[in-house]
Amino acid sequence: xxxxxxxxxxxxxxxxxxxxxxxxxxxxxxxxxxxxxxxxxxxxxxxxxxxxxxxxxxxxxxxxxxxxxxxxxxxxxxxxxxxxxxxxxxxxx
Length: 93
Fold this sequence. Notes:
Layout: E1 18-23, E2 39-42, E3 53-56, E4 62-64, H1 68-77, E5 82-84, E6 88-90
């Protein structure tokens, strides 16, 4: 939990499709928006060895698996990941 006075660097989680700060450390059985019963995990190469976010298979809402602060830390770990397909290309979240 972020204590008062501490703030995250400017990052818009809504650009990732995350509209709430609620954390689901285990895969939710239902989407918190539409109630659909299929939720999948989104993995980000270079960030962590498991799913970083949850996503509803119906409406596409994305839900946090970790706190916003920890999610941002993981995304920053993956910042310099690149794929060599004929040259260096960088992919940023």
